[in-house]
Structures are given as C-alpha cells and as structure tokens.
Design goal:
Helices cover 27% and strands 26% of the residues. The chain has 311 residues and is of the alpha/beta class. The structure holds flavin-adenine dinucleotide.
C-alpha cells in the first residue's frame, strides 16, 4: 500500500507534537496538526514540521477531552479518512475513544508498530506484555495512540509558509465542569525522553532510602524511575514515572535497576534501553536474564560503592 493520503496529529502536550509529526511523515502524503489555540500554537506546530494546521480556538474552563467534538469536526471537514495519531497519555486515550465513537473509526491504543504493507495494520501489546497483536484496520479512518519513544520518528524540518486554517469550537453535549486546577507537587520528569534512568524497585525498604537512587542518578546525570508497586502500592513516587507495560516505555541509553525483580510487565518498558544494568541480591532474579551487566548484592552496599567510584 502506498502512503495514506491524510494523517492528523493532536497532542495536548506541545512537547509531543514534534515526534507525532515525525511518526506521521513517512506514513502519509499530508500531515495536518490540530492545535488548540491561535497563531503561537499554530506556528509551533509549523516549526515542528506540520504543513497544514487547524487551530481550534481555546475556551476558558474547557478540558482537553471536551474538545473532542471540535477535533472530530475538524477531521470531518478535512475528509475523515486516513489516520489520527494522538499522544498515549490518559487524556489522549480518552480523546481517542471519543473520536472513535464520533467518527466511527477503529481505535488502537499504545501502538508498537504501524504498517502499510497490504493495508493499514497496527500492532500493540496484549496480555500484560506477554504477546503482541496486530489489528488490520477496515474502517476508512483509524485513531491510534502512540507512547513517547515507542515508534521511530523521522526528523522533520520547520515548514515555512505552512497553511493555517481556522477551526471551530463545537460545545460538547455533556460538558465536564472544571472546578479548579492545582499544580502537582514535585518536578515532572519525562522519563520516556531520559537518556539515563535509575529505577527503584521493591528491594528498597523505605521511602527515605530512595535518596540512594537519587545519588546514583546525579552521579550519572540521569533521572529516577520506579517499578509499579513503588508508585501504585507504596505511593513513594509519582505514577508518571513507573516503567512498564502500563507505565512509561523507556528509550534510554542506560537503565540501572536497583532491587527490581524483572517481571515481564516491567521489562517490556525497560527493554528499549540500550544497556541494562541490574543490582539484585537474588542471583536467580529474572532481571539477570535481561541485563547486560549484573551485580548480585545488597543494593544498600552496592549503590554507595558505585556512587563513590563514580565521583
Ligand atoms: C496487568 C499487569 C500490568 C503490570 N504492569 C506493570 C508495569 O507497567 N510496571 C511494573 O513495574 N510492574 C507492572 N506489573 C507488576 C509486575 O508484575 C511486578 O509485580 C512488579 O514489576 C514487581 O516490582 P518490583 O520488581 O519492584 O518488586 P518485586 O517483584 O517484589 O522485586 C523486588 C526485588 O528486589 C530484590 N531485593 C530485595 N531486597 C534487596 C536488596 N537489599 N538489594 C538488592 N535487591 C533486593 C529482590 O530479590 C526482588 O528481586 C503489572 C502486573 C500486571 C498483572
């Protein structure tokens, strides 16, 4: 199959627009970015490589999901055939479902591959990362969410004189009422974009000890992530930084697992790293089947020694 005639990209996070356009460009003849806002947002999309931009006017107190009818209208007006690529965050997935229903389009979340050989087909993980499924798309339009770094993005040049079209705001039939916005405590880290990641597992006995992982991350100029139980069970770290099939998919140069057992649901998120280093006191821990380098030992002794050696 030749390229798709139209690909539409949208992300509520401006930082994802560039890589979505990079994923779209080899697949489509024409890439249209849909943005919420006006000239500055449209120009940013043009700078990221979009040739056509549809700008939907931003509305006070309207959350991203409630732009679904407006985005659907923009896509309908542009032909409603081809592919819509969205960032695979919580809001992106919610939006994907709404767009799928509004546009009668197939929806696939967290694509691991998109192929045009013999028609549009989208692969994604199933059974908690134990298997891959490939969906052959039979609807004229498909909506696909893509996690940061999950698909290769072609480098794109800024488009001078990109065509900017004015979209319309279509109020949702059942709006969500925004009560208030509150900034999250702590600094947000985009772990999918990190080159070096130190990962905290349940081998840590208490929250105060996480500073050990922070020391190692500082020594190598990296960021700290964790396994799911550390975020969802213990609540010691933010949910945004747990690695795995239901969390962040890493694309790092170095991934250092500290007290992580290496269950498949975690490792599918870590496996994209070029070099995997594991510290675990159990020599039979599954993580050692994935590791390029392994240290069998107590992280409470190994990590301070590593930090001292790196200083
Ligand atoms: C549908 C589904 C989705 C899931 N998605 C995810 C996901 O996205 N991400 C994810 O992480 N998990 C996910 N899980 C959970 C996953 O299966 C594992 O339970 C989890 O990854 C285990 O976390 P852990 O390695 O930190 O803890 P554990 O499995 O408890 O391992 C702790 C490790 O620390 C070692 N250790 C203990 N003390 C020390 C010490 N002092 N020094 C060195 N080593 C020590 C132990 O030997 C052990 O290997 C999912 C599960 C399901 C069912």
């Amino acid at each position: 199959m030749s390229k798709l005639a139209n690909i539409y990209v949208f992300s509520d996070k401006p930082s994802r627009i560039r890589d979505l356009i990079g994923v779209a460009t080899p697949l489509g003849d024409k890439v249209t970015a849909i943005v919420i806002g006006a000239q500055p947002e449209a120009q940013a999309a043009a700078a990221a490589g979009a040739a056509t931009i549809i700008a939907i006017p931003s509305q006070e107190g309207v959350i991203v999901e409630d732009y679904a009818p407006s985005i659907a209208e923009a896509i309908r007006g542009a032909g409603a055939a081809g592919l819509v690529l969205l960032a695979a965050g919580k809001r992106g997935k919610c939006l994907a479902a709404k767009l799928g229903a509004a546009l009668r389009a197939a929806v696939v979340n967290e694509a691991s591959a998109i192929s045009l050989d013999g028609g549009l087909a989208v692969s994604h993980m199933v059974y908690g990362g134990l298997a891959n499924a490939t969906e052959t798309i039979s609807s004229p339009l498909a909506v696909v969410t893509v996690a940061s770094g999950a698909l290769e993005a072609a480098p794109c040049q800024a488009v001078a004189g990109a065509e900017i079209r004015q979209g319309v705001f279509v109020p949702p039939a059942h709006p969500i009422r925004l009560v208030k916005r509150e900034a999250k405590a702590g600094q947000a880290v985009d772990l999918a974009a990190s080159r070096r990641v130190v990962c905290v597992g349940r081998g840590f006995a208490k929250k105060e000890d996480l500073s050990l992982a922070g020391d190692l991350a500082s020594a190598i100029g990296g960021d700290v992530g964790c396994s799911r139980p550390i975020a969802e069970g213990e609540g010691w770290m933010e949910r945004e930084v747990y690695v795995g099939v239901s969390g962040v998919m890493l694309n790092a140069d170095i991934y250092i697992a500290l007290g992580v057992s290496g269950q498949i649901q975690h490792m599918v998120g870590a496996n994209g790293s070029k070099t995997i280093i594991a510290v675990n006191k159990d020599k039979n821990a599954p993580i050692f089947n994935f590791a390029d380098y392994g240290i069998v030992g107590d992280l409470y002794k190994v990590v301070p020694a590593l930090v001292a050696a790196l200083k």
